[in-house]
Design goal:
- Among the domains are: about 1-75, no CATH class; about 155-170 and about 215-395, P-loop containing nucleotide triphosphate hydrolases (Rossmann fold), CATH 3.40.50.300; about 475-595, no CATH class; about 605-644, no CATH class.
- Helix 16 (about 425-435) packs parallel to helix 18 (about 455-470).
- The protein has a five-stranded parallel β-sheet with strand order 2-3-4-1-5, sandwiched between helices. Strands 6-8-7 form a three-stranded antiparallel β-sheet.
- It has about 650 residues and is of the alpha/beta class.
- It contains 25 helices and ten strands.
């Protein structure tokens, strides 16, 4: 073997064997190979009396082929495995007694002294510490404490993070409402200059609408909205009323763009409250606890309470953010919610409007947040007016004739077809287009995008007329099943016919100045409209259908100029009044039939009254006899000769 050969070679040399040398304790290193032992031996030294000519050559050391160090407690071949003693709970303490251990008797006999009591208590503590039950209980307690401390810390972090994210929704820069229109805003910037620039230079009359400079469409209400969005108007909350397409939402967006949405947020309403909950959360950067990760000990799902309860939670968080923002910036936050009429004129929608109004009242009084509502219908204002104390109303009507003309020129230059435009033809058609469409911005924009503006305006008029007939068309000989619908239609045409009469009377007595048409819509008061229609409950239905519009001063108008022009064409027909009157007569006839009760007699009969004679003096109730006798086929009425 290699081991004895190595030892024999070193017999003639003096070797320093220390206490750590493998040769000092061979039993400890019996599991090592001979190569390993040889590598651990010290270098041999020559003896003092050795001959000088004897050359000394050191023993070469062998390097391991692997880098891992062999473990000393793992038996290796060819050595047999060493048996290990059984591990028991009592093996950790030599003094602790156990079954079959004599030390337990010795410990028990040592009682009575101070040292014996300490050893006994120590052994009890050691036994408890070594008990698996105690160790499991301690481990469980430590784990629960760690989970509790971590949960409390995460909850505090989550609440602070929710407020920080919501405050970031009002920071200057990014806003979802502005980002949507950013590309369109870059594509069509608001710049001076016009396709009619040389024509404006030719006109020297400043009152001439053709000489007005071509600029962006800026309404007179824009300055008021700018002050609200900037936080200059404190202590009130606002509602912007007006028909659809007048620019209410655009006015708010332009004000937010002017300050880069610093301290302002914008959300859109929806008929489904779940959808509105998500839109409000998007505007406020609030997830309604849906990103909460502590589901192990969390409460029930917040969405189980319904969307209105989630909206109330968002309002609570927003109030904390508004308090913190106002203390730091010295100005209130602004939250705009557009199209609140989409909530629906039902108990659910009315309750949500009142819920938002309560918050708006409290925040306006504290001066921490200003809310802005926009609506196309009248009922949200009617709902808020009952409980309003700090509500301000801003009406957004159609443009005046000069404003509408400039707006049409601007829209034509920005959004017109890319091909060459006949400016002379456009200038000639613009008064006719304004006569048909009026000052509604949305209608003017649609006509400005068309190749032929006048043809597009006429097509829009035809579509509007057919739509009105589909909603409130008259049916002279209608069935009694559609009586309620025809009653609503007839009352609606009474009001529209009244608008046509008012417009005709106003144009006959007015003096038209300039070349622009008169595009002002006729109006009547809410009380007079009730009298004309004879059914005041139908006004809200017409307002919801966008056939009429009601403003904050209780004036009733046609919804737009297309509605008025369509009503003029229909009411000017020859048989309109006869048709309207026949429908009303048919409604009265059906209602009269419903109010009457008919008695059907299948067989002719006669009633005979006989007096009781002298018995009537004694018993008046028995003295008179009334009998009914059926005549049947025997009854033949007498034929009169005059009938021949």
């Amino acid at each position: 073997m290699a081991g004895p050969r190595i030892l024999s070679r070193t017999t003639n040399l003096r070797t320093r064997i220390s206490s750590s040398s493998p040769l000092a304790h061979p039993s400890r290193y019996r599991h090592l190979s001979s190569t390993t032992i040889a590598s651990r031996l010290p270098l041999p030294l020559p003896r003092r009396n050795a001959q000088k000519d004897i050359s000394y050559r050191p023993i070469p050391r062998f390097r391991h082929l692997h880098t891992s160090t062999p473990l000393s407690d793992i038996p290796q071949w060819p050595n047999p495995p060493v048996p290990q003693p059984t591990v028991t709970p009592y093996s950790s303490n030599s003094n602790a007694g156990g079954p079959g251990n004599d030390n337990s008797n010795n410990n028990n006999n040592n009682g009575g002294g101070g040292n014996g009591g300490k050893s006994t208590r120590g052994s009890v503590y050691a036994e408890l510490a070594a008990s698996p039950i105690v160790q499991a209980a301690v481990t469980t307690a430590i784990g629960l404490i760690a989970v509790f401390v971590g949960g409390v810390g995460y909850l505090a972090y989550y609440k602070a993070d929710v407020l920080n994210k919501m405050e970031g929704a009002f920071a200057a820069g990014y806003d979802p409402a502005l980002e949507v229109g950013k590309l369109h805003h870059k594509k069509h910037p608001h710049h001076p200059g016009s396709l009619f620039e040389h024509e404006m230079q030719e006109s020297d009359d400043p009152s001439d609408p053709h000489s007005h400079p071509h600029t962006n469409i800026v309404r007179k209400e824009q300055q008021t909205v700018d002050g609200i969005v900037k936080g200059e108007n404190v202590g009130n909350y606002w509602i912007l009323m007006g028909p659809k397409g007048t620019g209410k939402k655009h006015t708010i967006i332009e004000s937010m763009r002017g300050i880069h949405a610093d301290g302002a947020a914008f959300a859109e309403a929806h008929g489904d409250l779940e959808v509105f909950r998500l839109r409000l959360g998007k505007a406020l950067h609030y997830e309604f606890n849906e990103d909460w990760q502590g589901s192990l000990f969390s409460r029930r799902d917040p969405r189980e309470g319904g969307p209105r309860l989630d909206i109330e939670r968002a309002m609570n968080k927003l109030e904390k953010v508004a308090l913190r923002y106002t203390e730091r910036r010295g100005r209130p936050l602004v939250l705009a919610i557009s199209d609140v009429h989409l909530f629906g004129n039902d108990p659910e929608g009315i309750a949500l409007v009142q819920q938002l109004q309560q918050r708006a009242e409290a925040w306006a009084e504290a001066g921490i947040l200003t809310m802005i509502f926009t609506t196309d219908d009248y009922w949200p204002y009617e709902t808020m007016k009952k409980n309003a104390s700090r509500l301000r109303v801003l009406s957004v009507p159609d443009l005046s004739p000069p404003e509408a003309f400039n707006a049409l020129r601007y829209l034509r230059s920005c959004y017109g077809p890319s091909a060459a435009i006949d400016r002379a033809k456009d200038k000639e058609q613009m008064p006719q287009v304004l006569h048909l469409l009026g000052g509604r911005i949305s209608l003017l924009l649609r006509a400005a995008k068309a190749r032929d503006m006048l043809e597009e305006a006429r097509d829009m008029l035809d579509v509007e007329r057919e739509w009105i007939m589909s909603r409130i068309g008259l049916i002279p000989d209608h069935d009694d099943d559609v009586m309620d619908e025809q009653k609503w239609s007839s009352c609606s045409w009474l009001l529209l016919h009244e608008f046509v009469k008012l417009q005709k009377a106003r144009l006959e007595g007015a003096e038209i100045a300039g070349s622009l048409p008169d595009i002002e819509l006729p109006k009547t008061t809410y009380g007079k409209a009730r009298v004309v229609m004879t059914r005041p409950d139908f006004l809200s239905g017409l307002d919801y259908a966008n056939i009429i519009s009601i403003d904050n001063k209780f004036n009733v108008r046609p919804d737009n100029m297309l509605t008025l022009r369509s009503a003029e064409q229909i009411t000017n027909e020859e048989d309109f009044e006869e048709t309207l009157q026949s429908v009303r007569d048919r409604v009265d006839e059906i209602e009269g039939l419903h109010r009457q009760s008919e008695i059907c007699v299948k067989e002719p009969f006669q009633i005979r009254y006989e007096s009781g004679g002298w018995l009537s003096w004694l018993w008046p109730s028995r003295g008179r006899v009334i009998s009914v006798e059926g005549l049947g086929a025997a009854f033949v009425p007498a034929k009169d000769e005059k009938d021949d």
